[in-house]
């Protein structure tokens, strides 16, 4: 026999969603929230908007991309959580990886060839590094010959840069270059609480990721 659930008013809907997201192990599809709470999609969207406002004053943030949503640590609280969990030491993104990530973030969806065309060098290593870190993922297939993978940013990307959604990226200067994109993206990243990367380390990683800057194509 199914347990009868208490009546859920409109005012309590944001709290119910927050409770579900709090215990979820990963991002939750909005359609799943609608089914679990037996509310139409527009009611869930309204409740999510209210919950986002509530979270803005606390230690968590509501984060979403495409059709999923999750609760994450507020960027300003991240360093303290990392210290508590023993995760203070984290490797910074190299210049090559940051360039590739900025291109994908601002122009997504992008193919690997598209990234290489913008950068002008082979980007296999940089893209592999970003995928391994969970910052980008395949989000579809292009309609061009060979149907190459389309790459886009992930919820982990939003969490890393303290964003709620991809649209929260700061605007680029007019006719911005690759360097402008990378610098703009880097500017929104939280302070790195880990060990400083030496110039030699950064140069070595750039060389590996770009396969000695082999021209694309």
Topology:
Layout: H1 13-23, E1 28-29, H2 30-37, H3 41-55, E2 60-65, E3 68-73, H4 78-85, H5 95-107, E4 110-111, H6 112-119, H7 124-132, E5 136-141, E6 149-153, H8 155-161, H9 178-187, H10 199-209
Antiparallel strand pairs: 1-3, 2-3, 4-6, 5-6
Helix pairs in contact: 1-3, 2-3, 5-6, 5-7, 5-9
Question: Can you describe this structure?
Answer:
This protein is an alpha+beta fold and 217 residues long. The protein has 2 domains: 66 residues, Winged helix-like DNA-binding domain superfamily/Winged helix DNA-binding domain (Arc Repressor Mutant, subunit A, Orthogonal Bundle), CATH 1.10.10.10; 109 residues, Arc Repressor Mutant, subunit A, CATH 1.10.10.10. It has 10 helices and 6 strands, in the order H-E-H-H-E-E-H-H-E-H-H-E-E-H-H-H. A 3-stranded antiparallel beta sheet has the order 1-3-2. A 3-stranded antiparallel beta sheet has the order 4-6-5. Helix 1 crosses helix 3 and helix 5 packs across helix 9. The longest helix has 15 residues.
Radius of gyration: 20 Å
**Largest sheet data:** 3 strands, antiparallel
Q: Tell me, rounded to a whole number, the average pLDDT.
A: 81
Strand order of the largest sheet: 1-3-2
Number of H/I helices: 10
Uncertain stretches of 5 or more adjacent residues = 192-201
| CATH top-level class of the largest domain | Mainly Alpha
Task: Give the H and E element order.
Answer: HEHHEEHHEHHEEHHH
CATH architecture of the largest domain: Orthogonal Bundle
Share of residues in helices: 40-55%
Overall number of structural domains: 2
Q: What form results from the Cα inertia axes?
A: globular
Number of strands: 6
Annotated CATH topology of the largest domain = Arc Repressor Mutant, subunit A
- In CATH, the homologous superfamily of the largest domain goes by the name Winged helix-like DNA-binding domain superfamily/Winged helix DNA-binding domain
Our measurement of the CA-to-CA distance between the termini, rounded to an integer number of angstroms, reads 63 Å
The fraction of residues assigned to DSSP E strands is 5-15%
Classification by helices and strands: alpha+beta
């Amino acid at each position: 026999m199914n347990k009868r659930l208490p009546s859920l008013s409109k005012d309590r809907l944001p709290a119910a969603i927050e409770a579900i997201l709090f215990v979820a192990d990963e991002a939750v599809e909005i359609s799943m929230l609608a089914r679990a709470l037996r509310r139409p999609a527009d009611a869930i969207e309204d409740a999510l908007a209210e919950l986002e406002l509530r979270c803005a004053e606390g230690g968590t943030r509501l984060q979403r991309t495409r059709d999923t949503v999750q609760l994450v640590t507020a960027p300003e609280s991240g360093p303290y959580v990392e210290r508590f969990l023993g995760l203070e030491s984290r490797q910074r993104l190299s210049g090559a990886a940051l360039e590739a990530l900025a291109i994908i973030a601002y122009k997504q969806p992008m193919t690997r060839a598209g990234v290489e065309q913008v950068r002008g060098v082979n980007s296999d290593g940089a893209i592999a590094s970003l995928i391994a870190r969970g910052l980008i993922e395949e989000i579809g297939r292009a309609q061009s010959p060979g149907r190459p993978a389309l790459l886009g940013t992930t919820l982990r990307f939003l969490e890393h840069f303290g964003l709620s959604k991809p649209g929260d990226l700061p605007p680029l200067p007019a006719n911005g270059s690759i360097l402008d994109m990378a610098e703009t993206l880097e500017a929104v990243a939280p302070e790195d609480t880990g060990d400083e990367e030496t110039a030699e380390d950064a140069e070595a990683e750039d060389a590996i990721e770009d396969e000695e800057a082999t021209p694309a194509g």
